[in-house]
Design a protein that fits this description.
By secondary structure, this protein is α/β, with parallel strands linked by helices. It has a 5-stranded parallel beta sheet with strand order 2-1-3-4-5, sandwiched between helices. Helix 9 packs across helix 10. The radius of gyration is 22 Å and the shape is globular. Helix 4 links the parallel strand 3 and strand 4. It comes from Amycolatopsis echigonensis. GO terms for molecular function: DNA binding. Keywords: DNA-binding, Phosphoprotein, Transcription, Transcription regulation.
């Protein structure tokens, strides 16, 4: 059984008496340590790990800790706050993400909700409120402050309406699935797609399976044909499908690049 499968099994069997396994994601080590110490005294919460937002080993640490819930400081995520939340949703589909932040912008709460965050907790909240939200998140129950909730619900409702109005075969795909399919149209291998999107090859495999299911086809080649017939075109610098892979130094099929006179460049 994989770590991701185990997430699903534990999520399906959680109840109010099961301690919530919590992972803390925040750039401030002192805050993580202090919060872990406080939460260790709270009933029904077990802090299993923590990491900085930009820790290169974040996903690996989280996968090894097998949390039910993760708190994330969205204010530390840089220019694209929803990117990390989206990656967590892709890598750990049964993980409940709670935004624990000192940011107050409603549009940021909308971004978080669209990226899959189940709850939003201001950092000036009481520890009792945080514990209550964590317990609810562990049961799959969402919590957003009233000041943000109306706009969050409107944005999600608008997304549902737009999805209902779509009719083309590619319109059934999520944004990330379209990115994967576009890379397939470009003739890229699964490992290349994973590297470009900064996800695991297993995640690309999952996206590919979903693409085939949504398009009603049985192979990647058929999916590419549907994509091309629907107007998706290879990028200008894409290699034809089946041609040799170009390496990082510009050579093809592992052969070194040679100069005009046949000599290797210095």
């Amino acid at each position: 059984m994989s770590v991701h499968d185990d997430f699903g099994v534990r999520a399906a069997h959680r109840d109010e008496m099961t301690p919530v396994r919590l992972f803390l994601v925040d750039d401030h080590q002192m805050l993580r340590d202090a919060l872990a110490a406080r939460l260790s005294l709270a009933p029904g919460v077990c802090v299993v790990g923590g990491a900085a937002v930009h820790d290169p080993a974040l996903l690996e640490r989280m996968g090894g800790s097998r949390p039910d819930v993760a708190t994330v400081e969205i204010g530390h995520c840089g220019g694209d706050p929803g990117e990390l939340l989206g990656r967590l949703a892709e890598e750990f589909p049964h993980l409940s993400v709670v935004v624990l932040t000192d940011r107050t912008e409603t549009d940021l709460a909308v971004v978080a909700a669209k990226a899959g965050a189940i709850a939003w907790v201001p950092k000036n909240s009481t520890i009792e409120h945080l514990v209550s939200v964590l317990h609810a998140a562990g049961l799959g129950q969402g919590t957003y402050p009233a000041v943000h909730l109306g706009e969050v619900l409107r944005a999600l409702r608008d997304d549902v309406r737009r999805a209902r109005d779509r009719s083309g075969p590619l319109d059934m795909l999520s944004q990330r699935e379209r990115e994967v399919l576009a890379s397939m149209v470009d003739g890229k291998r699964r490992s290349e797609i994973a590297r470009e999107l900064c996800v695991s090859t297993n995640t690309v495999r999952t996206h590919t399976h979903k693409i085939l299911t949504k398009l009603g086809v049985g192979s990647s080649l058929e999916a590419v044909r549907v994509a091309v017939s629907s107007g998706m075109r290879p990028a200008a610098n894409a290699r034809p499908r089946g041609h040799g892979r170009q390496s990082c130094d510009g050579s093809a099929d592992g052969q070194p690049v040679r100069g005009r006179n046949g000599a290797r460049p210095a």
